[in-house]
Design a protein that fits this description.
Layout: H1 3-21, E1 25-29, H2 35-41, E2 50-55, H3 59-66, H4 70-76, H5 81-93, E3 99-105, E4 120-127, E5 132-138, H6 144-163
Parallel strand pairs: 1-2, 1-3
Antiparallel strand pairs: 3-4, 4-5
Pfam family, one: CinA
Domain CinA C-terminal: 11-161
Protein name: CinA family protein
Length: 164
């Protein structure tokens, strides 16, 4: 089974669980460029669960669309725990969704540094009730596509955790 097929199967199951629980979701994505949203909306009937997606690739988009404070980005960098959390909270604040997941990272091949290497991805996930989760992954320099696909899998893990 290809990684794409596995993620499509997971998306279908996730949507079914969220539908059964009466939950809706919004995504806030940077390095994945809408890939989490794409896998979810690839499934027919996803519109009763998937509410909206924010693709906030630039720092300005993070600030304008999600309300991430520019000062937070300046002090911690876009690829950081505080920014991932703020993105997830911003997706909840700027939508009627019950749950959100946010992804910000360095997919490569360039853009990494000693402190923030290629393959570093921060995830945030929020529930309207106030729970906010964070996960940091260091996938390594495994290739841009692989970092992005691995990030979708982690985003699904977080949504599953929040939905249960």
């Amino acid at each position: 089974m290809t990684p794409e097929h596995e993620l499509s199967t997971r998306a279908e199951g996730l949507l079914e669980r969220m539908r059964a629980a009466g939950l809706t979701v919004a995504t806030a994505e940077s390095c994945t460029g809408g890939l989490v949203a794409a896998f979810l909306t690839e499934i027919a009937g996803s519109s009763d669960v998937f509410e909206r997606g924010f693709v906030t690739y630039s720092n300005e988009a993070k600030a304008e669309l999600l309300g991430v404070p520019a000062k937070l980005i300046a002090s911690h960098g876009a690829v950081s725990e505080p920014v991932a959390r703020a993105m997830a909270e911003g997706a909840i604040r700027n939508s009627p969704a019950d749950l959100s997941v946010a992804v910000t990272g360095i997919a490569g091949p360039g853009g990494g540094s000693a402190g923030k290497p290629v393959g570093l991805v921060h995830f945030g996930a929020a529930r309207r009730s106030g729970a906010v989760l964070h996960v940091e992954k260091r996938f390594g320099d495994i290739g841009r596509r692989q970092v992005r696909l691995a990030s979708v899998a982690v985003a699904f893990d977080l949504l599953e955790a929040l939905a249960s």
